[in-house]
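--- STAGE predict ---
source: upstream dedup step, 1 unique chain passed
mode: sequence only
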Amino acid sequence: MPAASNTLGQRLRWWRERRGLSQLDLAGVAGTSQRHLSFVESGRTAPSREMVLRLAAALDVPLREQNALLLAAGYAPAWRESDLAAPALAQVSGALTHMLAQQEPYPAFVVDRRWNLLRANDGAGRLTQFLLGPARQDSPATPPSDPPARVNLAEALLAPDVLRPHVVNWPEVALHFLRSVQSDAMIDGTPETAALLARLQAYPDVPDLAQLPAEAQAPVLVMHIRKDATALRLFTTIATLGTPQDVTVQEIRIESFFPADEATARIFKDWARAGAQGND
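--- STAGE serialize ---
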C-alpha cells in the first residue's frame, strides 16, 4: 500500500481496486449503498465501526490490516495479536505440537506469514543437519552477546549459499516459491511482504516471475535434493488454522514435507531410528 494512503477512504479504495471490485460490487456484498461507499472513500462520511468491519470482511482483508483500517477510522483494533507462547494460545500451541509430532519422521515447520521459522519437528532438524551440518553450539562460558537471528525459510531457499546448492531442480522450485510469495504480497498488501519479495528477487540468478513454468510431469512439484551420494525427493503441503480470530493465529502456516518415493521414506525412517538409538 502506498505510504500516502493514510486515510480510511484511501485505504478502502486501494483494497477495493486490488480486489478488482467496483463500488457497486463492494456495496452489494457489504450491504450498503454505492452512494454511502462513495462518500466513505472520498472522506465525506465517517462510517461506523461496524461498517468498517463489514467492508473489510467483504474485501477479505487480513485481520492485521483490518486493525489498520479501524485505526485509520479512529476506532480501536478489533483483533488482538498474541504471542504464540501466551496462555490465550495454549490450545493452538498444543495443536501445533501435535501436528509436528504426527509428521515424524518426516520434516515439518511452523512459520509465520513471511516464512520466519517459529517451530520445527525432529525430522526437520535431521534434514537440516544433513544438509547444513550441526547447529553451532555456543560455549556456556562465552554466551552470545546477541540473541540468535531469526531463521527465514524463504531466504534460506533463495540465497545462493544455503539450501540452493543441494536442490537439483532449484530453478523450478524457486519460481514456484517466488510466485507463492508474490501471491502473499497481493493478498495482504503489506510493505513487509512486498519487501520480502523484493529481497528474494534481488538474489543472483533468481528466475523471473514472468518466466513460464516447466510443463507438469507430475501432480505436484517434487523437490530433488542431493548431497554427496544421498538423494531425496520431497513434496510439501501448507496448512493454516481455520476460523482465526487472532492476528498471530491467522498468519501461522504449517509446512509438511512428504517423501515422493520409497527410497526417500526409508532414509528418513533410518535417520529417525539412528537418532532414537543414539538417545538410548
